[in-house]
């Protein structure tokens, strides 16, 4: 995964010896929703080969969503899912 990746509105930080990562997102004016803050937490289960991905956001009033579980996600896939997700991020 490498080191921390940061842009103006997104920050990705590897955690737990790189078996997971934590993202924060900010959009000053998300179309149809106004100001938006969100986060994603991804953890890789080395025993099962599965990723578990949790989201929380201002849209969901800070509630942590039920995790998405997937065995085929790459770093690029994860970014795509997060950017297109409706309620999570």
* Spans of at least 5 consecutive residues with low confidence: 81-89
Helix segment tally: 1
Number of discrete domains: 1
User: What's the rounded overall pLDDT mean?
Assistant: 77
Give the % helix.
10-25%
Radius of gyration: 13 Å
Strand content is over 45%
Structural category? mainly beta
Q: What does this molecule look like?
A:
Helices cover 11% and strands 47% of the residues. It has 89 residues and is mostly beta strands. It has one domain. It has a 6-stranded antiparallel beta sheet, with no helix packed on it. The longest helix has 10 residues, at 75-84.
List keywords for this structure.
89 residues, mainly beta, 6-stranded antiparallel beta sheet, 1 helix
Per-chain topology:
Elements: E1 5-6, E2 10-15, E3 20-30, E4 34-45, E5 50-57, E6 68-70, H1 75-84
Antiparallel strand pairs: 1-2, 2-3, 3-4, 4-5, 5-6
State the gist of this model.
This protein is mostly beta strands and 89 residues long. The chain has one helix spanning 75-84, and strands at residues 5-6, 10-15, 20-30, 34-45, 50-57, 68-70. 11% of the residues lie in helices and 47% in strands.
